[in-house]
Amino acid sequence: MADDFCPDCKRATEEVFDHSSGDTVCSECGLVLEAHFIDETSEWRTFANESGANDPVRVGGPANPFLSDGGLCTVISKPKGAQGDFLSSSLGRCHNRASSSDRSLILAFKTIATMADRLGLVATIKDRANEIYKKFEHLKSVRGRNQEAILAACLYIACRQEDKPRTVKEICAVANGATRKDIGRAKEFIVKQFEVEMGKSMEMGTINAGDFLRRFCSLLGMTNREVKAAQEAVQKSDELDIRRSPISIAAAVIYMITQLSDDKKQIKDISLTTGVAEGTIRNAYKDLHPYASRIIPTSFSKEDDLNKLCCP
Q1: pTM above 0.70?
Q2: Which distant-in-sequence residues (6+ apart) come within 8 Å of 18 by Cβ?
Q3: Has residue 168 got a pLDDT over 70?
């Protein structure tokens, strides 16, 4: 039961849902508030290890706008008997020829979905990566290229365009066999091909140190107080003329904040988490060190503690 407004009772009353007729009825006056309600839940629950080879599901997956038939194709099952084997082989060959155009796309989309799931990315980023790959595949530029690197680069670009950037190291960790150099080259190649095709530069979105900071702090097990101080420090560092990559600045700020806290982090741990080399973190820290009193919030550390900071 649930409460809903009844126009006859002129007030909120309890409603009853009649599953047999699909009607929502007022429990007090009997007025039908909504008729022929469509139940969008599963028709039944299927347990693969219990149902054996009999799958009672009568519907397929959702429509995919990136496929020529929307992903709503017909699959020919294999009948029994010798004559059935012959028919199934003939029909199977015809069916494979008819669906070969989308087969490579389906495999590519599955690979992108697997990588996105391992990174915990939302569906909008998956769809954007699928769209980028579909357009790139339409240019006939995929042949002879490292397929895994191309798919990983599409996911990297999609993260940038959706303002949820991931580092190349993070993308490389979920790509099958593609190195960071391969992904970087594939990304540059895709961007170049789109610029030639569209006649303008490809929108990639801007990267800020704050885009990576909270995720890195979470992986390092930092407290909420430390995370807030690091976020404020990163925002203030944008006003400085520090010519370092956003990831390097985020790593250097994290190191600076942890040195002022009770739970100090070693620079090698920050390097492993962020994917930034230890030497790069040291150099970025040296650039930020003179401005420590300006970027570190006073509520987190006093000036006497800031004076004790030293370069790593």
Answers
A1: no
A2: 24, 25
A3: yes
